[in-house]
Amino acid sequence: MSRETIETGSNNRHRANRAALGRKGFEEISPRVWSRESGAKTLRRIAATDLFISDFDECLCPAISQAVVGLGIFRRVLLSPFDNTHSHLVAGMARNAGRLVGKVAVQRITGRVQNSKLNRTFEQFVKGIPDQYFQDAIGEVAPPFSEGAPRALEIVAKRGVPVGVVSLGINNVMDRLLERMESEHGVRVNFRDCNEVEIDDDGLFVRYSPEKTYTENEDKRYRVRARVEEYGARHVLVVGHDCDDIMMFDEAKKLGGTALGFSPAGDVLDMLDIAVIAPDWRPVADLFEEAFGV
Ligand SMILES: [Mg+2]
């Protein structure tokens, strides 16, 4: 798929969302930032934040990180298919790779396929793969963070607000990417809730750990609630973008917090207090800078 096709799909989605936001009572309070409240009220709302939680894939990171890493692993296995450890993996990987690529392509154009739909395909796709391959693939294809995302998190953290990630991704990918966030951008998150993977004694991927499996968006609701309770937060700010984040938005609002959609899918607009219609996080960082006075 060409970059032009992807960008046209994304631009069309942004244009449709701007029109829809106007109809739903939002106003553009600053370039690319839409709110149901006035600019001053929106800034006060953000400044009151005492816990910050963001989705990861297609929010902080523009790609679906585990799919990108999965395809990097597949490339490696295919390059040496007669390796003893590879031969039995190729058929299963090939079968699931088509499904994975198809879902990712649809996601890029429509924004309508979520991580929750990819998760079980991905689990099958990487069954039996050495954990080292994940680490190598992250090194080779590590997607960059969305421009402005590390700065936005840094602004929030500097005000002493705990910062966390709630995601349907997997920990052996996400932890490496979050380590890069710390080493390259100096930003450290206080927590991350995502699928934890089981690696066997031979270092091979087995499955998602049963007690740490988050494949449904209801799981994200429970993680938000648990973290709000843990930190005693009264004004949680949650950032998400698609159907996987609806329950996270819903829970934040129930608990008196704020739902911010970054480049949101049309299906989630009704849930939002604030929408940022932009290709990266720079307008979010600018908004936080103004709100927190950093
Ligand atoms: Mg996401």
What structural class do you assign from the helix and strand content? alpha/beta
CATH hierarchy, class of the largest domain: Alpha Beta
Spatial arrangement of strands, main beta sheet: 1-2-10-9-8-3-4-5
Number of domains: 2
- Percent of sequence in beta strands: 5-15%
**Helix content bin:** 40-55%
Large-scale geometry:
globular
The CATH architecture of the largest domain: 3-Layer(aba) Sandwich
Descriptive account of the structure:
This protein has about 290 residues and is of the alpha/beta class. It folds into 2 domains: about 5-60 and about 145-200 and about 205-290, HAD superfamily/HAD-like (Rossmann fold), CATH 3.40.50.1000; about 65-140, no CATH class. Helix content is about 50%, strand content about 15%. It contains 11 helices and 10 strands. The strands form 2 sheets. It has an 8-stranded mixed β-sheet with strand order 1-2-10-9-8-3-4-5, sandwiched between helices. Strands 6-7 form a two-stranded antiparallel sheet. A hairpin with a 5-residue loop joins strand 6 and strand 7 (about 205-210). Helix 3 runs antiparallel to helix 4 and helix 6 (about 130-140) packs across helix 8. It is globular, with a radius of gyration of 19 Å. Residues about 1-5 have low confidence and may be disordered. Bound molecules: magnesium ion.
